[in-house]
Amino acid sequence: MTPIQHFLIHCHPLLLVSEALLPARSRSESSAQRILADVTLNKTVGAIATVLLAYGGIVLIEKLTGWLSEKVARRYRLLIKQSLPFLKGLILIVTVSHLLDQFLNLNQNNLLALTGTLAVALGFAFKDYVSSVIAGVVSLFEASYRVGDRVRIGEHYGEVVGYGLRSLQLLTPDDNTITIPHNLLWTDPISNANSGHLEAQVSTDVYFDHSVDMDLVVDILYQAAYSSQYTQLRSPVVVVITEHPWGTQFKLRSYPIDARDEFIYRTDLLRRAKRAFAHHDLAYPNPQQVLLRASEPLERLT
Fold it and tell me: Phi-psi region for residue 259, left (φ > 0), alpha (ψ -120 to 50) or beta?
């Protein structure tokens, strides 16, 4: 046996180890190259055009649905508005899928590795944002609120006029637009007045002295509701009476034809009813007695 053969026999295990380590190192260095596709000028220009086209499509759909919902019959208005989140989501899915296909080599192994990496990164860096996005997707299927619904979330009440990926836009009675993240769905109660329907119950309260003629008040409230041009006559009209130490509360529950007319409708009901109340000279609660009753709990505490 020659000296060279003898040397190769003794060094053979080391050569095997080095051969095993070098491919592993080369695989780790080229893993990013295998996941990332070649970035060319055409791909970059195409990606920019795709993003601009998607943005323009979302803006166009928002304006088109808003315009079309006001032109069609009233019963189709909310249906058109409620389709807006699904259309925007469809555009985003198509756009993201196209961009991933252009810049990533998405085979089975790369897809698993990329999904795991994104999950860890998003979990730490964008926890609240991802929570809002997931809550928004869940709300689409649970229909907790939709565009056109009149909802109360926390201290805010108004009409849902926008539904985005992370948040919704609420138009308040004072004509203020409030942005509320979807992740409040996990913690805060949500009150929905119409749940996708055109009609929403409106409660109108009036208060009188205990000596008032209750039958007369109830008749006036019914007449005010049935004579209003905003009342949905197919829906029930009910008057509920509640006694308080300082007077009697009458609550008129009725439905406008369109939930958007809630405050105009309540104003019209009060205008009609108070005109009749003044004609019959009905007695309202004594303000001094109301203040006295309100201060009684404080006096007991002191």
Answer: alpha
Assigned domain for 158 exists = yes
Read off the pLDDT band of 7 (50, 70, 90): very low
The residue out of 143, 178, 197 marking a domain boundary is 197
In a shared domain, residues 223 and 261? yes
The band of 289, judged by pLDDT with boundaries at 50, 70 and 90, is low
For residues 164 and 238, membership in a common domain is answered with no
β-bridge mates for residue 157, sequence order: 152
CATH number of 146's domain: 2.30.30.60
Q: Which of 12-16, 77-81, 227-231 has the highest mean pLDDT?
A: 227-231
The contacts of residue 37 (CB under 8 Å, 6+ apart) are 43, 102, 103, 104, 105
177, part of any domain? yes
Provide the domain limits for residue 280: 202-291
